[in-house]
Specification:
heterodimer, A: mainly alpha, Cytochrome Bc1 Complex, Chain D, domain 2, 9 helices, 38% helix, globular, B: mainly alpha, two-stranded antiparallel ribbon, metal-binding (chain A), Cyt_c-like_dom_sf (chain A)
């Protein structure tokens, strides 16, 4: 799946398997830019932020690879990323993956958290509706991701699918290198309990999205 | 220049009717928004023009230790020349050896031409109820003087080229707890976050032109005239990045990149948006 479909000329050093799109931007793009120059601009723009915020915007190895190819990562690199990210998934110690679907519905709808305008200590939501259709009755949904209506029913409530979805939400790049979906568990945006509740929202036969 | 004479109350009344409905029926809401946009682009009912008037007064007001107005400020086309200046910003200025956007340049003129301590001006960079913003008003006034002209920023000086390349790189740089970059939300056609449609700014051409040529804008949901500085500040908030420094080089670099994508867009500001 190609999220970014053009403009790969900037990073000349990156392995580019795709021919250049003949867009206006691609034609006029400056050749490669020294990333330390970019870092300097970033530092002058965000340098006064608290250390924990600065740590957050420092790309890890996975994001460095994604940035270099603008998410259109060559397949050998993609395999490294998915292997690395899958290894980060921490499954619940008690082996129970499904929580409370009603609580999960709330987490999926809650878009708050982790913005610089938020009060400290605010518990973040999953903001799933920003990108996904889920319950049919919720019309305010985004389209950056696929629809999740009928998610559990379509998968016949298969325990293997439950496990896979847990890992997907915990670390979306465990299955899709450079996915634009956040790595909710790995980046500590959501707790294990929140993820279990969302899973129940997706997989409980009583959950409205499976009706 | 167009001045508003009526209709502000009508616009606000109308808004309070449709805003809560936006989350209900999405197709109907999108049509409503289109209709609403067409109606309120009428300068007679756009409160953004009040900011234009306030900006004109501020431009002429003698201030600072030197007791002079901003009328001799060089925005790139020569001292005091306003017509078309905004269409060519950001740009490189030899006297500072930097690429500056309009707000950086205005701050520089305030400090150097007027001898004004800009601490208070910067503190009021984004207006709030009871807290007007000199910068928003000045930008509205100056940008309005480029109406009917096409976005055409110079990209000849090495520092202008550097800014464009850095801006492009920053546009794609992912980070923060959600791994977001500008491109997460603005690199595909026809996408939405919740109900808000997202312009694809990764491509040069019409969408970028229409987007950039409509800033500064009067934002009805905030009852305020907003500039690109505010838009990008708000996008970094949604990106879950730290608050960017006002009038910093990174924001200017991103603006250079966006203006480059938008080259040829015909400016019509202040516009009015949700």
């Amino acid at each position: 799946m190609t999220m970014i479909s053009f403009g790969k000329t900037l990073l000349v050093g990156a392995a580019l398997s795709i021919s250049f799109a003949a867009s206006a931007a691609a034609q006029t793009a400056t050749k490669s830019i020294d990333l330390t120059v970019v870092d300097r601009y970033v530092a002058s723009t965000f340098g006064k932020a608290a250390p924990e915020w600065l740590a957050r915007i420092k790309p890890d190895a996975t994001l460095e690879t994604c940035n270099a190819s603008r998410n259109d990562v060559p397949s050998a690199e993609a395999d490294k990323i998915t292997a690395r990210e899958l290894a980060r998934v921490v499954y619940p110690a008690d082996g129970k993956l499904l929580g409370n679907w009603k609580e999960g519905a709330k987490v999926a709808n809650d878009g708050r958290g982790n913005q610089f305008s938020d009060p400290p200590g605010l518990v973040a939501g999953g903001n799933c509706y920003a990108c996904h259709q889920i319950e049919r009755s919720e019309l305010s949904y985004g389209t950056l991701g696929p629809s999740l209506t009928n998610y559990g029913k379509d998968r016949k409530y298969d325990p293997e699918e439950v496990k896979r979805a847990y890992a997907k939400i915990y670390d979306s790049q465990a299955f899709a290198a450079c996915s634009i979906m956040p790595r909710f568990g790995a980046n500590k945006v959501l707790t294990e309990t929140q993820i279990k509740n969302i899973l129940a929202f997706l997989f409980d036969p009583e959950s409205p999205l499976n009706k | 220049m167009n001045r508003p004479k009526l209709g502000v109350a009508a616009v606000l009344a109308l808004l309070s009717v449709w805003l809560p409905q936006a989350s209900r029926a999405q197709d109907a809401a999108e049509k409503e928004i289109e209709r609403y946009r067409a109606m309120i682009s009428d300068p007679m009912s756009n409160p953004g023009y009040l900011a234009v008037d306030r900006g004109e007064a501020l431009w002429q007001e003698k201030r600072g230790t030197k007791g002079v107005s901003l009328e001799q400020c060089d925005l790139g086309l020569g001292a005091g020349k306003l017509e078309g200046a905004f269409a060519q910003l950001p740009r490189y200025f030899a006297d500072t050896d930097r690429v500056m956007d309009l707000e950086q340049r205005l701050l520089w003129c305030m400090q150097n031409l007027q001898g004004l301590d800009t601490k208070d001006v910067v503190a009021r960079r984004f207006s709030a109820p009871g807290k007007p913003s000199d910068m928003e008003d000045l930008v509205a006034f100056i940008a309005n003087k480029s109406n009917g002209m096409k976005i055409n920023i110079p990209l000849n000086h090495p520092k202008e080229k550097e800014a464009a390349a850095v801006g492009e790189e920053m546009f794609y740089r992912r980070g923060g707890v959600n791994d977001f970059s500008c491109a997460t939300c603005h690199a595909d056609d026809g996408k939405r976050i919740r109900l808000q449609s997202l312009p694809n700014l990764s491509k040069a051409g019409q969408t970028a032109q229409e987007t950039m040529a409509s800033w500064p804008t009067y934002r009805v949901s905030q009852s305020a005239l907003r500039t690109m500085q505010h838009r990008l500040w708000d996008c970094f908030r949604q990106q879950r990045w730290p608050a960017p420094e006002y009038a910093s080089d990174g924001i200017t670099a991103l603006t250079v990149f966006l203006q480059k994508q938008a080259a040829g867009g015909e400016i019509n500001v202040p516009s009015i948006k949700r």
